[in-house]
Design brief:
This protein is α/β, with parallel strands linked by helices and about 230 residues long. The protein has two domains: about 80 residues, Elongation Factor Tu (Ef-tu), domain 3 (Beta Barrel), CATH 2.40.30; about 130 residues, Nucleotide-binding domain of ferredoxin-NADP reductase (FNR) module (Rossmann fold, 3-Layer(aba) Sandwich), CATH 3.40.50. The protein is about 20% helix and about 35% strand. Strands 4-3-6-1-2-5 form a six-stranded antiparallel β-sheet. It is globular and about 50 Å long.
């Protein structure tokens, strides 16, 4: 692993933070993740995080606090100048390389599952490849709609799914507020595994099936287990 330092911190809401680091991953494919490590009680503890940064830009982590967790309370206690450790190379296959041709790309996420989509939008290829890009972000409160202004400024549509206002992503689909045409669209899902399972079921009922390299479909997924 390599040591790097935090150069900036942005608090979106209590327990929801973006950390910008010195190190930049030149070979990053937007959508990939890296292991982040801290020394906790004499032991080096690792957790996986998707990167919100574009290739070659300072690495950016989008982090949510899990109260009582072993890792996130320590990570969110850090400030600019503090050191952390990263894998030397990012990894993962939740990238546009594996997405088939489509007219529309729907990027659906809960919480910090938004990070890989921010990376894709910042890199820019997604906007030239698809006629329409829609980001649907599911959160508990409006304050947690991180990156919203940047997403719109980069040219994507932004659909909030605040559970206490609009309802969850599943509710938007069930009410017909998200019109996703199997003949035109590909959907990427990232976040809570329960959300991914339920949204996948709802999309399948509407003619959108899971994408596999040997059997092309309409839905690509990446489960985000709770980082503690």
């Amino acid at each position: 692993m390599i040591e790097t330092r935090i150069v900036d911190r942005h608090d979106w809401a209590p327990g929801l933070v973006t950390l910008k680091l010195e190190h930049a991953f030149a070979e990053l494919e937007p959508g990939q993740w890296t292991n982040v490590a801290l020394d906790v009680d004499g032991e080096r503890v690792r957790r996986a995080y998707s990167l919100a940064s574009a290739p070659g830009a300072p690495a950016e982590l989008f982090v949510s606090l899990v109260p009582g967790g072993r890792f996130t309370p320590r990570l969110l206690a850090l400030s600019p100048g503090d050191a952390i450790h990263l894998d030397e190379k990012p990894q993962g296959f939740f990238t546009l390389k594996w997405v088939p041709k489509a007219h529309e790309l729907w990027l659906m996420a809960t919480g910090t599952g938004l990070a890989p989509y921010v990376s894709m939008l910042r890199q820019g290829d997604v906007l030239s490849r698809f006629e329409r890009v829609v980001v649907v972000h599911g959160v508990r409160s409006e304050a947690e709609l991180a990156y919203r202004d940047e997403i719109v400024a980069l040219g994507a549509e932004h659909v909030p799914a605040v559970s206490r206002v609009q309802g969850r992503i599943t509710a938007l689909i069930e009410r017909g507020e998200l019109t996703i045409d199997p003949g035109r669209a590909h959907v990427m899902l990232c976040g809570n595994p329960a959300m991914i399972a339920e949204v996948s079921r709802l999309l399948e009922a509407r003619g959108l099936r899971k994408h596999r390299q040997r059997k092309p479909g309409h839905v690509t997924t990446e489960s985000y287990w709770e980082v503690r």
